[in-house]
């Protein structure tokens, strides 16, 4: 394998790793956002419940 081919192969691996990192952080970001949303909804429900008593 020539040096150029080796370099291209390495770049491909790097790009794949970067894509995986982006996907993982995207998924984590989505989970965190939905987690925050759930907590806010619960908080609002608690407030409404307290007002009804």
UniProtKB/TrEMBL annotation:
This is Uncharacterized protein. It comes from Panicum miliaceum (Proso millet).
């Amino acid at each position: 394998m020539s040096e150029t081919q080796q370099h291209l192969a390495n770049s491909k691996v790097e790009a794949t790793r970067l894509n995986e990192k982006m996907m993982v952080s995207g998924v984590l970001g989505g989970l965190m956002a939905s987690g925050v949303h759930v907590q806010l909804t619960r908080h609002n429900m608690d407030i409404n419940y307290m007002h009804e008593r």
